[in-house]
Design goal:
With 288 residues, the protein is α+β, with helices and mostly antiparallel strands. The chain folds into 2 domains: 163 residues, Jelly Rolls; 102 residues, Arc Repressor Mutant, subunit A (Orthogonal Bundle), CATH 1.10.10. The chain has 11 helices and 9 strands. Strands 2-9-4-7 form a 4-stranded antiparallel β-sheet. Strands 6-5-8 form a 3-stranded antiparallel β-sheet, with no helix packed on it. Strands 1-3 form a two-stranded parallel ribbon. A hairpin with a 2-residue loop joins strand 5 and strand 6. Helix 9 crosses helix 10. It is globular and about 60 Å long. The model has no long low-confidence stretch (mean pLDDT 90). InterPro entries: Homeodomain-like_sf (IPR009057), HTH_AraC (IPR018060). This is AraC family transcriptional regulator. Keywords: DNA-binding, Transcription, Transcription regulation. Pfam families: HTH_18.
Length: 288
């Protein structure tokens, strides 16, 4: 992968406690304070390497949160899960400081429970009450560090966070399909995140993972409704758009960074998938 000057802030997991717990909980005012301490402008593009589960308390205003060019409106008593590697832009600091709610963050691998991400979720009825109870139990345990051994505390937090995620997953519409953990698509998705700038060929991923291209395509179709090649191309296009909008890199720099032989190959690829040249997309996305 070629080097490129980044204006996307890479944010590493750093809990406020100096102990190795796998998750953390923060309110919006504290989030702003942490941003100031780390000299991070939360309204500017940032790419955390950890999960965010954002909850806005009832009784307030909806909260805007942008993830990879899509602005979500999290309603009061609503939730949004954003996975690691997505590019976030929070609302302005003055908005965040008056927002009441909770953000649960955790390292990849801390839990295995799953739920729909990047779509705001608003549980209703009994689901709402059960989700609230799960969150309260998690917060209570989190607030009593020292009453158990560190290992037992981590285990308890892991279990309670799993309960919260399962409750949220079942409070929304059922997923179109279940994605088996460590199955062909799950492994392909992970490999693409790691290598999309190194190879643009599904056959290379299939060989590395020990599957046939047909198996990867069938698994990707079942999970996403698109082919493995379409999934891979979409990931490359997304990264190209991030770099074009959030950095001042030239199209040639972006092409090198994403593993294209030359700027012409990148422009042809981008136009095929977006309908515009890279620089036309940049100008329109920036309102120029």
């Amino acid at each position: 992968m070629g080097k490129i000057g980044q204006h996307i802030t890479e944010v590493a997991y750093r809990p406020w406690l100096s102990v190795p717990i796998g998750m953390d909980v923060v309110g919006f005012a504290e989030l702003c304070e942490r941003g100031r301490r780390r000299e991070i402008d939360l309204s500017e593009p940032q790419r955390p390497d950890f999960h965010h589960l954002i909850h806005v308390e009832a009784g307030g205003d909806p909260l805007r949160h942008t993830v990879d060019f899509t602005t979500h409106l999290i309603p009061p008593d609503g939730w949004l899960w954003v996975r690691p590697g997505r590019v976030h832009q929070f609302a302005a600091e003055e908005v965040l400081e008056r927002t009441r709610g909770t953000i649960v963050i955790w390292r990849p691998g801390f839990v295995t429970a799953d739920m729909p991400d990047e779509e705001p979720l608003s549980p209703t009825g009994s689901d709402r009450e059960l989700v609230r109870m799960a969150l309260d139990h998690l917060l209570a345990e989190y607030g009593h560090l020292g009453t158990l051994s560190l290992q037992a505390h981590n285990t308890t937090l892991r279990m309670l966070l799993s309960v919260l995620l399962v409750r949220l997953a079942n409070a929304g519409p059922p997923p179109a399909t279940e994605i088996p953990p460590d199955g062909p698509f799950d492994r392909f998705r992970t490999a693409v995140e790691h290598d999309f700038a190194s190879t643009h060929r599904v056959a290379d991923y299939a060989a590395a993972l020990g599957y046939s291209t047909r198996t990867l395509t069938r698994a990707t179709l079942a999970a996403t409704g698109t082919t493995a090649k379409a999934y891979l191309d979409a990931r490359i296009v997304l990264e190209a758009k991030r770099l074009l909008v959030h950095t001042d890199a030239s199209a040639a720099d972006v092409a090198r960074h994403l593993g294209f032989p030359g700027p012409g190959d990148f422009t042809k690829f981008f136009r095929k998938h977006d309908g515009r040249t890279p620089l036309t997309f940049r100008a329109e996305a920036r309102g120029q």
